[in-house]
Amino acid sequence: MPLPDLLTLALIGFIGLLCQWLAWRVKLPAILFLLLSGMLLGPVSGILQPDELFGDLLIPFVSLAVAVILFEGALTLHRSEFAEVELVVRRLVSYGALLNGVIIAVATHCLIGVDWALAALFGAIMVVTGPTVIVPMLRTVRPNAHLARTLRWEGILIDPLGALLAVLVYEFIVAIHTGAEVSHALLIFGQTIAAGVLLGVVGGYCFGLVLRHRMLPSYLHNFGAIAWVTSVFGFSNTLMHESGLLAVTIMGMWLANMPNVHTRDILSFKESLTLIFVSAVFIILPARLQLEDIVSLGWGAFGVLLVMQFVARPAKVFLSTLGTNFTRNERLLLAWIGPRGVVAAAIAAVFALKLEAMAVPDAQVLVPLAFTIIVGTVLVQSLTARAFARLLKVTEPDNKGYLIIGANPVARAIALALEDAGRPSVLCDTNWSHISAARMKGLKTYYGNPISDQAELRLDLTSLGGMLGLSDNYAVNTTAALRFREDFDIGRVFILPFDNGESGLGKQKASEFYVGRLLFDEAHNYSALLWLLDKAGGQVKSTLLSKNYTIDEWRADNEDDETVLLFAQDDKGSLRWASSDVDLQPEPGWRLYYIAPPSPEKDRGGN
């Protein structure tokens, strides 16, 4: 039974949040839970009926959401990355996509029984993968950088190109059913490409100039980007139908690679907006399905799914990677990951409505067949891709390490303690003597400014999941925290407390809201830790707590000296940092890491 409209809209948002949270907890792509939720809310229970809720605004809303998602993805595409995978990506989105579409079309004609024209249209629609499904899956699967870049570039570029291919086939079907010339269909196709490219380049260049010359205040950058993207998309689609996806993709790529144009704040905002749109769209579209329409497809739909997963995608990948440096295992994973997403669903819905209005036979099967394939590919690959990638040994290491700002004695001591706890670290410093000393101890380093343009290209964060601001300069620590809170959860960004000795003005201390969490306590700033390690002869030690030697006994042994608890490693291997906002209560089985003056009798718990 349908709910009131306002309550239904609220329910979509709440269910979307719940799905995202559940996906985070169980380490599976959120789209899997979103699709299942949409099916339960729509065809199963009848609570959500999108066509009645949104009316004529449904397809425009979905189209604008897809445009924002594609633009956000295109903002991450930099030429420096493309150079490493250019050949394979070019193959995947060109003749690889054509081969994929042909195989799907043949399977659709033979297994579903539709005519060749409609099968060709479905094959064209199903060549797309898309960032809406690829990016969340990459976060969970964590393939190596080589594979991740390839899948991301393919997913973003194939969406507008797949949409254009679908437009071409659609125009041919229209020409057949209206008696128009085939040359007219080719003309429409050329005009669509021209409109998308022209408006994308002009739109990207003009907005880039606005940002470069600061014609908008900072607080209007995000609003301006949304307004500009939707305007370019709407104008392009009005000028030439389905050219808008190409326009916003080119616009995003142009902005990402335009000199002296900084899009980091816009990208951060777009990522949040994309999360909202993906959650909403992947609940709304499955809710439009009717169970009887899916059942009527029979086993033929399952056969098409099998062909796509085990024939079409592998054939496309192995043809596209011939003669390249992709290993066999990388090819296998690339061939396995190719889920269909929201663009395929939206295009199928739009074209199905138009073809049904023209009384084209079997046009009504496009939407249920498309969603069967989308749900099937997302379900199968979401549940298996992570395990398959690990089996093939093509995953990045878990992001349990730390980026350490500073390579001074304090930073080196804490980095060595992290190494002992099995947590890798990368120490960044502009002081060569500090970097040299760290390298002499076998620590991984980055010589240079961690927030520079060079660091954007060279500083590898793949195995890192947090940041420690341990520099002797409080301003450097806070600046780095502001930069890397975008890459790491704010709860895993730590800095040393403000050192009043730097200026004597405690009012200069930055708000923890902006720079993350405060390590240790106010008394143990950089100067205090350096004195303890250097002047007092302190060392980093570790003690394993047990039932015979508890935290209370350890504290009693260390209450009268300068001992500083750094972090504790629990019995499951997780790190718990000593910070000003947490009252750390280690339990038996935990190992403590701390700085203390040499005192052999203290280590009763064992090292």
Report on this model:
The chain has 607 residues and is an alpha/beta fold. The protein has 2 domains: 58-392, Na+/H+ antiporter like fold (Up-down Bundle); 401-602, Rossmann fold (3-Layer(aba) Sandwich), CATH 3.40.50.720. Helix content is 61%, strand content 8%. The chain has helices spanning 5-26, 30-44, 50-54, 58-74, 79-92, 95-112, 116-125, 131-141, 145-178, 182-212, 221-239, 244-256, 264-284, 291-296, 299-320, 328-336, 342-357, 366-392, 409-420, 432-440, 453-458, 474-484, 512-515, 526-534, 551-557; strands at 401-405, 425-429, 444-447, 464-469, 493-495, 517-518, 539-544, 564-569, 575-577, 591-596. The strands form 2 sheets. It has a 6-stranded parallel sheet with strand order 3-2-1-4-5-6, with helices on both faces. Strand 8 (564-569) and strand 9 (575-577) form a beta hairpin. Helix 15 (299-320) packs antiparallel against helix 16 (328-336). The protein is elongated and about 95 Å long. Mean pLDDT is 81; it is low at 502-506 and 602-606.
Main sheet record:
6 strands, parallel
Helicity, in percent? 55-70%
CATH architecture of the largest domain: Up-down Bundle
Strand content: 5-15%
CATH fold category name of the largest domain: Na+/H+ antiporter like fold
Query: How many separate domains make up the residues?
Result: 2
Number of strands: 10
Structural shape: elongated
